[in-house]
Amino acid sequence: MQVSEGGKNFSAGQRQLLALARGILKLRTSNILLLDESTASLDQATDEHIQTTIREQMSDAHLTIIEFDKILVLGSGEVLEFDTPANLLNDKKSVFADLCRRSGDFDELKAMAEGKANK
């Protein structure tokens, strides 16, 4: 298939898949993968497959995040939270804490964050 300038001959979903693939491939040279509405133009089955794959392949990513000095949480293009992992995990209304609770590793993550904070 011939690719036209800007990928105009691809659907929005196809362009989104290409952008996601490019981002994942760049992980070889970068430690950051920023996803913002990365599957919005995809059908539900493809979205679920991608979300499952990302969760499985990056299952230890949240353990790395706990080691950072500060965490920035974005939502709808706005900064929702910016604080230390320990402070965010101790905030019952924290989006980050909710994500950690849903990961199933909340107690381990909280212990790690508090251990780092007490150093």
Automatic annotation (TrEMBL):
<dbReference type="InterPro" id="IPR050173">
    <property type="entry name" value="ABC_transporter_C-like"/>
</dbReference>
<protein>
    <recommendedName>
        <fullName>ABC transporter domain-containing protein</fullName>
    </recommendedName>
</protein>
<dbReference type="GO" id="GO:0000329">
    <property type="term" value="C:fungal-type vacuole membrane"/>
</dbReference>
<keyword id="KW-0677">Repeat</keyword>
<dbReference type="GO" id="GO:0042626">
    <property type="term" value="F:ATPase-coupled transmembrane transporter activity"/>
</dbReference>
<dbReference type="GO" id="GO:0005524">
    <property type="term" value="F:ATP binding"/>
</dbReference>
<keyword id="KW-0547">Nucleotide-binding</keyword>
<dbReference type="InterPro" id="IPR027417">
    <property type="entry name" value="P-loop_NTPase"/>
</dbReference>
<keyword id="KW-0067">ATP-binding</keyword>
